[in-house]
Amino acid sequence: MRSAAPYLVMMLHVLPAAAQQPLETKLVIRQGGRETGREEFTLRQSRARGLPGTTIIAAARYPAAAPTTQLSATLERTPEPALAKFELDVESGGAVTVILAAGSGARLIVRTVAKGSESGRELPGGPDVVLLDDAVYSLYMAVADLATPAGRPLTAIFPRTGRRASFTARREPEANGGTKVTLAGDIAGSLVTDAQGRLERLELPGQGILVARAE
């Protein structure tokens, strides 16, 4: 993590990389019935340098037109699956904040870099921990991968805010080959993925959030 600092500082002077490349799946984000933003993502069945695993690359903007906040995220996981790489870049008000997370066994190290400041913290990690964000909803695909028919207890960490949430993810098959996952606990709602594991719909009623594929 320490050796990544020069790279992170460099990232403060450019737009998030994921926001500059075409991404294949588009989502509309609504809160309280009103559209608040748009998100695009790509799910790859490999990691950097062709390593096995999966990669989610996402870009979100709020609002969709003339956005005042833009986020890009990269999440790489190994086949087990375990965290291999997490990066979240947030551009708001002309400033960029870069958040990087890496896991090793039961530890999760999170480092945050903004112009003129840098901080780090160590958090409990492990196979039942997922990294989420309140504005990048394609990251919930990792929850679908870990869910089980009986319901699996998971802990979500939101690296940007430091929030932790305990919940259970129970999955059941959909007729089209996809998966429906029911969430209960600190995070309550449901999500649906298609046969390729890509997010189709996410509902978080307690927050008034509805995320759905763009028509």
Helices and strands, with pairings:
Layout: H1 5-11, E1 25-31, E2 34-44, E3 54-62, E4 69-77, E5 83-92, E6 95-104, E7 107-114, E8 117-124, E9 129-131, H2 141-146, E10 152-158, E11 163-173, E12 179-185, E13 189-193, E14 199-204, E15 209-213
Parallel strand pairs: 9-10
Antiparallel strand pairs: 1-2, 1-15, 2-3, 3-4, 4-5, 5-6, 6-7, 7-8, 10-11, 11-12, 12-13, 13-14, 14-15
How does this structure look, described?
- The protein is mainly beta.
- The protein is 6% helix and 54% strand.
- It has a 15-stranded mixed β-sheet.
- Strand 12 (179-185) and strand 13 form a beta hairpin.
Care to give the gist of this entry?
The chain is mostly beta strands. The chain is built from two helices and 15 strands.
β-strand number: 15
Strand order of the largest sheet: 8-7-6-5-4-3-2-1-15-14-13-12-11-10-9
Structural class: mainly beta
Give the tally of structural domains.
1
C-alpha-based Rg, rounded = 16 Å
Give the CA-CA distance, first to last residue: 40 Å
Give, in order, the helices and strands.
HEEEEEEEEEHEEEEEE
What form results from the Cα inertia axes? globular
Taking all residues together, what is the mean pLDDT?
88
With helices defined by DSSP (H or I, 4 residues minimum), what is the helix count?
A: 2
As residue ranges, the low-confidence spans are 1-20
**Biggest sheet features:** 15 strands, mixed
Helix content: under 10%
Portion of residues in beta strands equals over 45%
